[in-house]
Each structure stands twice: as structure tokens, then as C-alpha cells.
Give the backbone structure.
Amino acid sequence: MIETVPAQLRYVCSLAFGTRLHTRSLDRLVTALVDAREEFGAVGRDAAEALRGPVLDDTARREVQIRRFRKQAELAARTPYYGRVFAELGIEPRKLRWADLEALPPTPKEMLKADPDAFVPAGARPAFRALTTGTTGIPTTVYFSRAEFEATVVLGAISVLLARQVEPGDVVQLSVSSRALFPVMLAAQIAARVGAVVYQAGFVDPGHALALLAEKRSLPGHRPRANVLSTTPSYFGSLVERGAELGYRPRDFGVERIVLGGEIATQGLRDRATRLFGEVEYVEPYAATEIFGTGALTCLSGHLHFPVPPGLVEVVSLDGRREAEPGEPGTLVVTPFAPYRTTTVVLRYDTADVVRVPAEPPTCELSTIPATSHVLGKLARSIPHSGGWTFQRDVAEALETLEEVPLPARFGMRADRADGVAVEVVAREDDARTRRRVAAALERSVPLRGLRVVTDPASLEDPVLLRTDLREHSFSDFGTARLRPAEEAVPA
Amino acid sequence: MIAWIVVTTLVAVAPVAAWIYFRRFEVMRPPIGVFDWHDVVFMLVAIVVVPVAYLALPRAVVGTVLCLLALNIFWFGFEPVLRFRPLIWLAAIGLVAVDLVVSLTVRAGASWVLAVNDFALVVLAVCVTNVLVQSGMRARDLAFLVSGLAVYDVIATTYLGFMGDLLRRLATLPFAPLVAWRDGGQWLALGLGDLLMVVLAPLVLRKAFGRTAGIVSAVTSVAAVAGMLAALRLGWFSRPIPAMVVLGPLLLPQYAWWRLRLGPERRTWEYLEIEAPVRRVTREAVESTRERPLLRRGALRRGTATAAIERR
């Protein structure tokens, strides 16, 4: 107990002054949280409040944010990209005020994609090159140092312990793309630090992933079967679909928590998954490689809450000209701060992820932390029309509730005339009943002006890309080898 | 004889009161971490260093420190009982003020002074021991602590006579760390540190190994103290007895016995699940009742420990 006091003080100082995170101190906090869980059965609610720091009113929060932005801008000035930008705009990072910040144009993804090295300040020590698996074309590069990696592991361990996403004794299956090596390494290290057993299953054939989930093990001190599944919503949809085909039932699994990230997770998907996994807890954090360290927590009311210390999160109106008003959609523009980010430095990075600013101040359990809605979709996929905007989430939510639409919902959407949206969707059957049901579901949230129902995904003209299609193969897929039962003798 | 009866009664009442408190009230604990060997080492270092500071510092400063410490401990101890902040402050400041006023205004050694100070020390022991055990102190840590204290007590009390000097210096200050009574011009007293061990051990052993272990510890410790006080009263010893030299060796075999007999000690959540206390005032109950106006707080709600609720 007493040894956590200097560790907490050190952490608070790192946050206050933006100095380097002391990994050993953070590790001590992880140990203390694990010990508390072991002794009391749970980590107290006060722990989260103690580590998140004091609740700040708007004025204090803005003051803290501009001070930390200034410090990050000083670091950014040592990168070729921002060195140029500041010179062109005549901005002096040390004297930066809110007006200057707002005048600083958001950094588009394309710039980072085109020249990631230009975002690394002189003196940085890059060690890992993380490539996104992105569904938006060429991967984006973000560099991380070893210190960032190590600090992120312990910060991640603190975060999952506080949120009870992963606990000691858990068995965690990571069903994410193996190409996303950096997030996989982080997730694996975090789970292992907490005291869980973790394995990367990858985006293999869903039947194989389900077999791994159903597998019984006898590891001392751990669950007999995987009880935490971390994956993307589209791959989860594939699991639900294949699981139903293979006749799996909830009693075949021991899954308690499912962590979904990287894409839009719909209520329909969760409802349909109940038949396969039973009642489970869903965790839907928001994170992206480009803004790593500045993720969001989700509350029970479905908001994304962005803690203040790791970075500045702004919601900019969809025309990119101003801060979005309450109730209005906008894109997330994020500045990760030191000490969370010191290698690839981005200021006002435009994620192009659309969210909505809550119309009323949230009253949920995380109401003291700034909030937005869940991600509604990518800006490039969002469709303006005379009645407002239609987002990917509007269509996905409508489609995934329907049994006629196999999971994950595969669809495309485009503007149709000036006042509506045309949708193409893959369904099990292309008959009148299916078309009627799909149209009725879509019309509740989308100004539908055209509908095309197909049964073959390849027939979609402009489909929304899904991560589940980043499929990984095993020898069994190619027919060169078969999964062999353990008891079968291996020929000499 | 009266002094022996008074001091022994106080020593017997303290573990009973602490036991009832332990079963009934959940104290506020530090948000991160558990009481472990680091804390034991810290306590041992403090036990060695603080008395030296008390001897070196001016008496007024020492008195102020003792009052502030007591105020702090009372606040935490009264918090789940009274729940309403003004009441907690009133009770904590009131008790400190009474002890302070009595010790400053009444003749040193008067029965009033002793009675008030003894009462305050028993309340203090109940609060401190509950904070320690409810912060997750384990029987293993207790064994480590009493071993260290036994060695320290021999050195400080017997060889250096240091404890005698300290107690003489602090005896007339508020919160003098002595549960004492005077009878026929003769003093009989037990140091606060020894009282804390008598009170702490039953709670820790109850949590770790069950009710029987706790009761055995309470009975043996109180009996041992009663015996030592009797020996002093009968004049068998001319110098103060280092009580930890008796209490430590009494406790260590108990720990070893229960550990061998019952296996690994229970954690707090296991204790609360196996021996769920009825009508326990949990943190949840404290927080929720505190939000309501004083006059409409109503009866305490039934409940079990917050941790156990969270596990479900």
C-alpha cells in the first residue's frame, strides 16, 4: 500500500508536466491493483478516480489542455512536417493560444500516409513501425519507441483492470488480424501482465476460431475455456454466422466478455450473438493506431468518453470549419499528448471518424469525462442529403437486425438524387419478402431512394470494406494437411 | 487491585469492541493496493524512528501531533458509523477536545484524566486495527510485525530503558499512549502499542482462519496481559515488562498452527463470502445514506461487503 504512494505521485507528475512515464512506477500500480483484486475480489471504484485524476471544470480543463498542447507543439516543431507548418503559419509553439490552435489546420490521414517519417521529431528513438490494416487503402505508418511500448503495456494493464475487461485467471482469445502486429503485441503483453493467458488466433476460418473458443483446457488458476474474446465486429459476425451453421450453442463456450473494436458494432449483431454465446458482457473501446494512447472508454449509456490527460479530442463539424454544436455530428480530431506519444507526433489529427456531440450533458457513470456518441462511420462513406446525413451505422444497425441478412452485413451505399440514399445489400434470398423486410428496416432510419438486394457478395458494386475479409489461411484451408485429432498416431 | 481490574477490563473490552466493529462496519480503505510487507517494514521503521522524534521535539509539538493523528484516526473510524460529515467531525473533534481540555486543565494523574484518556485510547485502538485489517492485512504480515516488535521491545524497553523515558515524557500529554490507572499511589499501565497488538491479532486471525482462531487469539492475548499486569502489581518485576516478548511468542505458534491445519489463509473476499456478516454497513450503504438529508436517513440497509457485491 505504502509503496504505491510514490508511484502515484510520479504518475501524476508525468501527467502534469508531460515528462516521461516511469514504467517501473506504473508497473507497481499494476501490481497493487492485481493485489487489491486478489484480496478484495474486485478493484474499488475509487481506484479509477484516483488514477484518472481530479474532475476538472471546463475552464480548468481548457487551461490544462492548452498547456499540454503547447508542450506537444514544441515537440512537433522538431518534426519536418510541423516545422514547415508552423513556419508557414507563423505560429510560435511556446506562445500558442486557443485561437492559434483552432487556426491550425487538422492533419489529414493522407499526409501521415504519404510521409510518416516527417512526423518523427529529431531525437526520437523509433523502434517499432506499426502499419494499420486499414479498410481505407494503403496502410498508414506510425512509429513507436520501446519506452512508449513499455509504458503503453502498463497503462493498458491499469486500464483493463479498472474496466474489468481482462482479469487474472482469464483466458483471452485474440481474433484480430495478425498483420496488426503492434496492437497484437500490446494486447498480448497487457493480458499477460494482468495475469491472464492470451493467444492470437488471427482471422482464420471462423470454424477454426470457434473450435478454439470451445476447446477445454486445464491450466491451473485459469478458466477452463477462453472467457474473453477480442475481435472486430465483422469477424464476430462471421463467427456468429458460422457458429449457427455448425450448430454451436451457448453451453459449448465459456465466453463472458467480448471486446469489439475497429469497426461499427451494432445492437442487431449483439442480439443475434446471444443465440451462440448467451448473455455476455460487451466492451467497445475506441482506439486507432494513429492516435494510440488517446482511446475512449464506453459507458453503459453507449457514449465514448475520452479521458483528458492523454490528449485533446475535438469534434469538428463535418464541413471542417468549426467545433460541432451539441447534437451535431462531426469528425474526431485528436492530438495525443506526451508522455503518451513522443515518437510519431501528430497535432489535430483528423481521424475521419464521425461521431455526434451529445445533445444534453451526459448523466451516465462517466459523466465527468468528456463524451461523444459511438462512431457513426467514416466521413468518406457518409452521405449528405436534403434531410441531413446518413451514416454507415444507420444502415448497418438496420440491416444486422434482420435474419434475412447474413452476418456481417455486407452492403454498399451512395447518394441517390439530392434527397436520399440508395443501398445495395447481400441477403440470403433475393425474393419479394426479403426486399420488403429490408426496405422496411432501412426506411426507419434512412431516406431510402433505391434498394438492390443480391445474394453474392461479389455482386456488390461499391461495398463497405470489412476486416473479416483480411482472412488468414492455414494449411488445412489449402487441403495440404488436415487437422489431426490428438489421439491419432503420427506416422514416422 | 482496582487498577488491575480497570486496566484488564479495558484491555478485554477493546478486542470485543473491535470485533463487533469489524463485523458491522466497512471502513474506507485506500483506493489502490493492499496492506502488505512493505507496510510492515514501514511500520517497523516508524516504530523505531517516531519515539526518537517524540523525545527530541518540544512537548507542545508532540502533543499537537498526537492530537492531529487521533483526529485523523477518529474521523476514519467514525465515518461508517455516523456517515453524515458534520456528525463525524463533531464526534472526532469532540473526543479530541475533551481529551485535550481534561489533560490541560485537570491535575496530571487525576482519575478524570486517566478515564478520558483510557476511553479515547480504546476507541483509537478499535479504529486503527479495523483500518489495518480491512486494508487487507494478512496473518503472515502480522507474524512478521510481531516478530519485529518483540525484538524491538526487548532492546527498547529492557536494554535501553528507552520506552520508560518516552512514556514518562508523554504521560502528561493528551493522548498519552498508556492505558493506565492509579491505585494507592501506584500506577499500572499498558502501552498503546501492546494494546494495538492485543486488538489487532484476533481480527486478522478471524479474517484469515475463522472465528475460532480469532477467539483463541483474543483470549490468550488478554489473559497474557492480565497475567503480566498481575505480576507487576504483585511486585514480581521491578522494571517495565516488554509485553511484546510475551505476546509475540504467543501469536507465532497460533499462526503456524492455523496455517498448517487450515492451509493458506483466507482473503477478505473469501472471509466475506464464507462468513457474510448480517446487517453489515457497506461502503455502498454509507455513500447512499450520506446523500440523503440527516433527518431522513432512515435505518441502515442490510448488505454484505462491497467487494462481494462487485464480484457478483
The first helix of chain A runs from residue 4 to 17. Residues 398 and 441 of chain A are 5 Å apart (CA to CA). The first strand of chain A starts at residue 126 and ends at 131.
